[in-house]
C-alpha cells in the first residue's frame, strides 16, 4: 500500500470537515492530516478511509470515526512527553495519533487477532507505541501512573482501577452509558479529587473484561 497525493488530498479535506464540525485543536488536526488512515483498514475499504465514518476491522470491532478520534484526543489535552494509556487498540490508528502528538503511548487490546494486526501496521509505518495484549479495563498497573487514559470502548461505569492509575493532574476520557449510547466523560484528578465533566453522546462497541460488560 502507498500514501499517494490522492490520499493526502483526501486527508486534507477530512481535516477541513472536522474543523467545520467543531474540532479546534490545531495539533490534533495536524495529526489527522499526517497519519495515513487507509493503512489501518482492510485494503478493500481503502477507498473509504477518509470518509468521516467508523469501519469494520474484523472480530466484530471497528476503527472509530475520525470525528470521534479527534474529539477524544482533543479532550485529553496531551503535552509532548506525557505518558498515556489507551484501552482498546483496535486497528492502532488512535495509538498512531497519540504517538504523533509526542506522547509515550501504551495501548492494550483484548482480541489477539487485532493486537497482532495493529502491531504489524504500526511497525510498517515506523510508529512505536508499546502494545499489550490483555484486559485493559483494569488499566496497566505496572506502568501507572499515567498523565492521560483514553478508553475507546463503551463502559458501563467508570472503572476505579483507571482513576487510581491517573497521576495528579491526569485526565481520563471514557464513554460511559448503556450498550446503545454513551456520554463522553473527562475525569481530572486534582489534589487527589476527581472532577467529572460531561460532553456529547456517542455509540461505541462494548468494553469487555473485568470492569466492562464481560
Ligand atoms: N482505538 C481503536 C482504533 O483506533 O482503531 C478503535 C477501538 S474499537 C472502537 C474498541 C476496541 O476495544 C476493540 O478493538 C475491542 O476489542 C477493544 N476492547 C474492548 N474491551 C477491551 C478490554 N477490556 N481491553 C482491551 N481492549 C478492549
Structure, explained:
The protein is globular, with a radius of gyration of 16 Å. The protein has a domain at 58-202: Rossmann fold. With 214 residues, it is an alpha/beta fold. It is built from 6 helices and 9 strands; from the N terminus they run ααββαβαβαββαβββ. α5 links the parallel β4 (104-109) and β5 (130-133). α1 (5-20) runs antiparallel to α2. The strands form 2 sheets. A 7-stranded mixed sheet has the order 5-4-3-6-7-8-9. A two-stranded antiparallel sheet has the order 1-2. The chain has helices at 5-20, 26-34, 66-76, 93-100, 112-124, 160-164; strands spanning 55-58, 61-63, 83-87, 104-109, 130-133, 146-151, 166-177, 182-190, 193-202. The N and C termini lie far apart (37 Å). The structure holds S-adenosylmethionine. S-adenosylmethionine is lined by residues 61-64, 87-88, 90-91, 93-94, 108-111, 114, 135-137, 152-153, 204-205, 207-209, 212.
Under CATH, the topology of the domain at 58-202 can be stated as Rossmann fold
CATH superfamily of the domain at 58-202: Vaccinia Virus protein VP39
Q: How large a portion of the residues is in β-strands, by DSSP E?
A: 25-35%
Helix content estimate = 25-40%
Mean pLDDT: 96
The number of strands is: 9
Short structural summary:
The protein has helices at residues 5-20, 26-34, 66-76, 93-100, 112-124, 160-164, and strands at residues 55-58, 61-63, 83-87, 104-109, 130-133, 146-151, 166-177, 182-190, 193-202. It has 214 residues and is α/β, with parallel strands linked by helices. The relative contact order is 0.13.
Amino acid at each position: 500500500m502507498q500514501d499517494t497525493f490522492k490520499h493526502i488530498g483526501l486527508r486534507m479535506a477530512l481535516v477541513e470537515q472536522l474543523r467545520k464540525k467543531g474540532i479546534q485543536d490545531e495539533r490534533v488536526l495536524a495529526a489527522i492530516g499526517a497519519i495515513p488512515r487507509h493503512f489501518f483498514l482492510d485494503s478493500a475499504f481503502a477507498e473509504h478511509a477518509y470518509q468521516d465514518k467508523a469501519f469494520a476491522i474484523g472480530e466484530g470491532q471497528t476503527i472509530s470515526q475520525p470525528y470521534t478520534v479527534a474529539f477524544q484526543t482533543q479532550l485529553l489535552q496531551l503535552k509532548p512527553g506525557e505518558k498515556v494509556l489507551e484501552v482498546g487498540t483496535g486497528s492502532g490508528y488512535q495509538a498512531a495519533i497519540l504517538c504523533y502528538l509526542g506522547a509515550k503511548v501504551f495501548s492494550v487490546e483484548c482480541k489477539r487477532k487485532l493486537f497482532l494486526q495493529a502491531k504489524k501496521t504500526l511497525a510498517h509505518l515506523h510508529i512505536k507505541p508499546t502494545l499489550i495484549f490483555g484486559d485493559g479495563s483494569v488499566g496497566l498497573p505496572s506502568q501507572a501512573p499515567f498523565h492521560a487514559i483514553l478508553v475507546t470502548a463503551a463502559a458501563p461505569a467508570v472503572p476505579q482501577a483507571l482513576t487510581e492509575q491517573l497521576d495528579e493532574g491526569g485526565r481520563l476520557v471514557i464513554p460511559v452509558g448503556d450498550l446503545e449510547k454513551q456520554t463522553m466523560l473527562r475525569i481530572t484528578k486534582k489534589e487527589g479529587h476527581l472532577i467529572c465533566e460531561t460532553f456529547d453522546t456517542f455509540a461505541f462497541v462494548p468494553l469487555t473484561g473485568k470492569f466492562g460488560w464481560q
